[in-house]
Amino acid sequence: MSLYRPPRTQSSEITPREVYLSRRSFMAGTAAGLAFAASGTALAAPLAATPSAYKVADKLTPKQDVTTYNNFYEFGVNKSDPAANSGDFKPTPWAIEVGGLVAKPQVIDLEKIMTEIPMEERVYRMRCVETWSMVIPWIGFPLSALLDRVEPLGSAKYVAFETVVRPAEMPGQSGFFQPLNWPYVEGLRLDEARHPLTILATGLYGETLPNQNGAPIRLVVPWKYGFKGVKSIVKITLTEKEPPTTWKNSGPSEYGFYANVNPAVDHPRWSQATERRIGEGDGLFGGRRVDTLPFNGYADEVAGLYAGMDLKKFY
Ligand SMILES: Nc1nc2c(c(=O)[nH]1)N[C@H]1C(S)=C(S)[C@@H](COP(=O)(O)O)O[C@H]1N2
Ligand SMILES: [Mo]
């Protein structure tokens, strides 16, 4: 894994943020479906999306918590670092290179694909391996819609994802202390990637995705621990073999490839049986303590993907 790669966008190619955002607002205003109200913050742009059947009844985590309590080590290791240190990150324009075992490898322009694939709002429970959880109204589209465009070959069994490397814009990638190897990489089995619950998110709470949440596009897999949700994706590769993943590389006995939320399989250093709902109640560390559900409550939809597998072994 290379430690440094130059930024992929030349500064001359960068669209001024105001131009991009006004274009975005225009699209939101004209697209069919429900246009969500803007919050009034200067940098947030409304995103058009239609509500989907995929939602949970749980109380939403306040936007303030969703956007200030984050894991994104490229901007620092503390939960408050991503919101504090991601102001210089430039998520536009954005291209994703999709290749590997596919019939039609291509570089996808994000702004273009967002006008071509219908955007949906999905309210998902999210569970971090560190035992906090949130309920987030994402905006995005099924990963399968993007995979269909590149036509995976019969030999493709896995999908590998890569986060951008931009030390000049990501202080966590340029400091003396480097907590992880860059780029941050993740992966899914192809059937997991194609599952209708698996989305690429480009927004939350009706607005363009904030930098700290993985702008401009990140993976969301609600039945898995949060570290599978790789942020600021620039590369997607279809492979035959299970791809390396950042947290498994850094601690294979603590973090597995599957990372399905499982209250019966403890992390070696802590229990996974319960979780803290951020923004609710006022427990010792903040958050209401609730029981963690198998597959994070999505067992009816996804347990079949793992029929016959020993989930204690494939954690
Ligand atoms: N590139 C990258 N993606 C990442 C991480 C990271 O450090 N770098 N952290 C992961 C972890 S551990 C979690 S819990 C989620 C948090 O997503 P959120 O901040 O939007 O809630 O992002 C995941 N994606
Ligand atoms: Mo996490």
Protein described:
This protein has 315 residues and is α+β, with helices and mostly antiparallel strands. The protein has one domain: Sulfite Oxidase, Chain A, domain 2. The chain is 17% helix and 22% strand. The chain contains 8 helices and 13 strands. A hairpin with a 5-residue loop joins strand 2 and strand 3. It binds ligand MTE and molybdenum atom. Residues 71, 128-130, 226-227 line the site of molybdenum atom.
Shape designation: globular
CATH architecture: Alpha-Beta Complex
CATH topology: Sulfite Oxidase, Chain A, domain 2
Q: State the order of secondary-structure elements, H for helix, E for strand.
A: HEHHEEHEEHEEHEEEEHEEH
Bound molecules: the ligand Nc1nc2c(c(=O)[nH]1)N[C@H]1C(S)=C(S)[C@@H](COP(=O)(O)O)O[C@H]1N2, molybdenum atom
The top-level CATH class is Alpha Beta
Give Rg in angstroms.
19 Å
If helices are DSSP runs of H or I spanning 4 or more residues, what is the number of helices?
8
State the separation between the terminal residues, measured CA to CA: 24 Å
Spans where pLDDT lies below 50 across 5 or more residues: 1-42
Mean pLDDT: 88
- Counted up, domains total 1
For the sheet with most strands, the description reads: 8 strands, mixed
Strand content: 15-25%
| Range of helix content | 10-25%
> What is the β-strand count?
13
User: Structural class, from secondary structure content?
Assistant: alpha+beta
CATH superfamily, by name, is: Oxidoreductase, molybdopterin-binding domain
